[in-house]
Amino acid sequence: MTATLAQVNKGDELPATSVRVTRGDLVRYAGASGDFNPIHYSESFARQVGLPDVIAHGMLTMALATRLVSDWVGDPGRIVEHGVRFTRPVVVPDDEEGALVELSGKVAAVNEDGTVKLTLTAKCAGQGVLGGAYALVRLP
């Protein structure tokens, strides 16, 4: 769905989506991003530094939230601003199912300058993994 400014009201919800993140996804993301920190592939290293297991890259989690927004606006070029805080890691088990990241969003404000502020939520295992997540978009 491509949203337009005339169709949007404060409180409207973006279509929620869920994405499975597997260890294979972490390998592909590491190759694309150049982030080869062993917390993203080595269980023993992750545990050694106090993590429960291998975790997804924070920027990958942010990218999933960004994809929710870009799918809704229909054009990633319409995203004016985007920010998050990483509040909890996405633990990715060593199985074919991986971790399920649930994404949702809501219109927080429709501004006079033609921009729309969205609040975003990303959860894994029932817990929020991004804090203060938002996007500012300019709709047609």
From TrEMBL:
<dbReference type="GO" id="GO:0006633">
    <property type="term" value="P:fatty acid biosynthetic process"/>
</dbReference>
<dbReference type="InterPro" id="IPR002539">
    <property type="entry name" value="MaoC-like_dom"/>
</dbReference>
<protein>
    <submittedName>
        <fullName>Dehydratase</fullName>
    </submittedName>
</protein>
<comment type="similarity">
    <text>Belongs to the enoyl-CoA hydratase/isomerase family.</text>
</comment>
<dbReference type="Pfam" id="PF01575">
    <property type="entry name" value="MaoC_dehydratas"/>
</dbReference>
<dbReference type="GO" id="GO:0004312">
    <property type="term" value="F:fatty acid synthase activity"/>
</dbReference>
<dbReference type="GO" id="GO:0005835">
    <property type="term" value="C:fatty acid synthase complex"/>
</dbReference>
<feature type="domain" description="MaoC-like">
    <location>
        <begin position="17"/>
        <end position="118"/>
    </location>
</feature>
<dbReference type="InterPro" id="IPR029069">
    <property type="entry name" value="HotDog_dom_sf"/>
</dbReference>
<dbReference type="InterPro" id="IPR003965">
    <property type="entry name" value="Fatty_acid_synthase"/>
</dbReference>
